[in-house]
Design brief:
It contains 2 helices and 9 strands; from the N terminus they run E-E-E-H-E-E-E-E-H-E-E. Helix 1 packs across helix 2. The relative contact order is 0.14. The protein is elongated.
Length: 158
Amino acid sequence: MFGEHRYRLHTTWTGNRGSGTSGYREYDRSTTIEIPGKPVLHASSDKPFRGDPARWNPEDMLVAALSQCHLLSYLHACVEAGVVVVGYRDDASGLLVEDGRGGGRMTQVVLRPHVTIAHESMRDAATAAHEQAHAWCFIANSVNFPVLHEPTIEVAAR
């Protein structure tokens, strides 16, 4: 089934310390991101950009979106391939390179999924499912930098 899906949210800057953006150091980078029916996400810029390191930043959220999208696409690919996944975790990382003019870009994200499968006989299909998951991942298909995969497959202890 083909279709369009729209996603809406409300982002509010909450960092006015009283004088607005009267100077670069005069305001906080804090924001809230809200979607009805979901918990409020407290966000900021990354610490090197005068943000609050205790809050999610856009770069964190981009890496998280790629990691979660791959995970969900992978689980679907495994069902299609007859692979029983009993555990999955990912140690993902992203690289942002500044351009020296106040901007920059994410240049790559590396996903390192550690997958636990039910039986050794499923190992090859479990490995191949990462390629299918990458092809299906909406977020990976939307970015203009490489999303690399370094999967580890293990068999559950019996």
